[in-house]
Amino acid sequence: MPRQLPPATSRFTARKAELAALSRALSERKPGLSAIYTITGMAGIGKTTLALHWAHSVADRFPHGQLYINLRGFDPSGTPVTPSQALRGFIAALGVRPNNIPFEMAEQISLYRSLLDGRQVLVILDNALNTDQIRYLLPGSPTCMAIATSRNKLGALVANEGATPLAMKLLEQGEGAELLACYLSSERVEHERGAAATVVELCGMLPLALSIVGARAAIYNWPLESLIDDLRSERDRLYALDLHDSETTNIASVFSWSYRNLAPEPARIFRLLGLAPGPEISLAGVSALAGTPLPATRRLLDVLVEANLISELTRDRYRVHDLLRTFAADQVERDESVQSRQEAMQRLHDFLLSAADAADRVISPNRARIELLPVAGVLSKPKFSTYGEAVGWLETEHMGLVESIYHAVRNGFDAHAWQLAWTLAVYFDRRGHAFDRLRTGEAALQATSRLGDREAEALIRTSIGYARARVGHFAEAEEQLLQALEALRRIGSEVYEGHALIALAIVYEEQDRYGEAKGHLERALLLHERHHDRAGQAHALENLGWCHAHLGEFPAALRTCEAALALFRELNDQDGQADTLDSLGYTYAQLEQHEQALGHYESALALWRDMGNRYDEADVLTRIGDSHAALGAQEAAHEAWQQALFIFDELAQPDAELLRARLAR
Fold first, then answer.
1. What's the rounded Cα separation, in Å, for the pair 113 and 123?
2. How far is 566 from 464, CA to CA, in rounded Å?
């Protein structure tokens, strides 16, 4: 009776769901069929560890033996075991003398399955390259069970042989800490709790990476804190994940076994992903990065998904594990020329800028435009026919777009950096992402400084000023806007001067400096009228009406806001209409005409909700609550304030504390 299972590790943790699934497969086998399970996942995720741990736990259920073979599908030797070699080994283990083993593989298969017939044997086919390597090693007897592990998904085994797939996931944060504790003790991990959590995160929840770090810390008695800097550095991360005594404990080597099995075209796609600004990327983004048409790109990405080198989030969206992305970045630097890398990054930045501009033109069609860089090499970009489609794309791509601005600044694509930051400003504002608008603006400011482009610098300062006002940094906001105005006046850019004046007026409005705000808005209105900028005129009028209302000039407020509303309706500008309806509601509230105020507020609320404008939705809900309170409807007032508070908290806005205090009264 063969007992070929290698030792199981004593440092096994978590994986309760996976163990339960394997045990169910054993207890719920269908009559007349052998049970076949595939355990698949990325390199280092613990496929073999899981298979062996479970196999040892149920060895007594297979009294006629356990067969095991490392098929070396992904191995330093680079030479996978052939099915015939594996069959000869299994047949010999089942008691047949080597000189009695048939030479022809068909006869080997027949003898192997005959030997297993009626016996209770567990067969572990570890580290398989593909289904073809496994198919002939499967037992035919329903009394047997086979488990195959592979970095590939083994889809043909599932489709043709009825195998049940078990796709392994990364560890959870707590499970990662438990694995570290297997090397360092629970007391030590608890003592270094903060550092341990950071290590788990920087290791990407990958068991092999955590095992290497845990072993290094245990061997050298290093505090976990001392390993964090190397793990945080993309340049040093792979070096930190190497025990330097075996390729199996060198994360880069382990990944390389998957990479070198790729054909040239998918290998190129994989390493180019090391140039992407973030872990997630769309199909169209990869197409731009690689310069390949969408259908061909999809086919190549399918190869990488099958190899578990990337994961497919949706049919057109992919994610690369952080450690694999670091490995890909090393490969692209080694295998692609500087020119090739620069061209790939330019294609990607061209794509993101042109796609973001297409979305921005839908969500803010009347915005004064900038002259974008000419786009080269973009084979396809998204098309948006509705506001919802445009905002949906921006939300999906949000983190990648933010990271791409920083990426562009780091890699010398300065014009792309500032133009993308400017293009995204309205989206950031509508969705309440003030801190993203602020941080990307500050990064883009470095880019405009290097370019020496005074107008671009002024536009970015205007955006930064507006964002600083949104987060309550009024002095800094005023400073940025005054610098922008000085530059715009010097170069004679009157339309953008008008927009900067409106932004400065909003800063003053937030500080109850309505007299100063009014003067800037009157100047802005004059400039926009001079240049026949109807959208600019509408925004100046709306803010002017807001100032009139706060200065007690209610007839002027109503007159000015009605003029703004007419312009916004003519322009089909929903956001502008909502702003103006809000201002009209406020004016009627000051006149103690609260029913009319509520009507205007609720119209504004409907528009902002339709657009997904979270900050302004919360802002007008606050005033709706105020009007209900003035009418004596306290329950309705509290409900509106609670809704507003929820959104302000979600957006981390300082307004939340003021509203919380009001609700506490």
1. 12
2. 30
Quickly tell me which residue has 């930051």 as its tokens: 421
Give 608's DSSP letter: H
pLDDT (0 to 100) of residue 33? 67
Residues in the chain: 665
Phi-psi region of 259 (alpha: psi -120 to 50; beta: other; left: phi over 0): alpha
Give the residues across from 66 on adjacent strands.
3, 122
Quickly tell me which residue has 């479970």 as its tokens.
54
- Would you state the structure tokens that stand for residue 47, as one six-digit string? 């496929």
Band of the pLDDT at 654, cuts 50, 70, 90? Answer: confident
Nearest CA to 74 out of 312, 253, 294 is that of: 253
Q: How many CB atoms lie within 10 A of CB 473?
A: 18
pLDDT at 466: 94
- Local structure of 37: helix, strand or coil: strand
Instruction: Write the DSSP string, 348-397.
Output: HHHHHHHHHHHHHHHHSTTSPP--PPPP-S--------SHHHHHHHHHHT
CA 506 to chain centre: 33
How far apart are the C-alpha atoms of 396 and 167, rounded to whole Å?
25
Work out the end-to-end distance of the chain between its first and last CA atoms, rounded to an integer number of angstroms.
79
Instruction: Calculate mean pLDDT across residues 404-431.
Output: 96
pTM: 0.87
CB atoms within 10 A of CB 193: 11
Report pLDDT for 665: 74
Q: Is the pLDDT of residue 42 over 90?
A: yes
Long-range CB contacts for residues 372-377, cutoff 8 Å, separation at least 24: 372/419, 373/415, 373/416, 373/419, 375/350, 375/351, 376/346, 376/347, 376/350, 377/288, 377/291, 377/343, 377/346, 377/347, 377/350
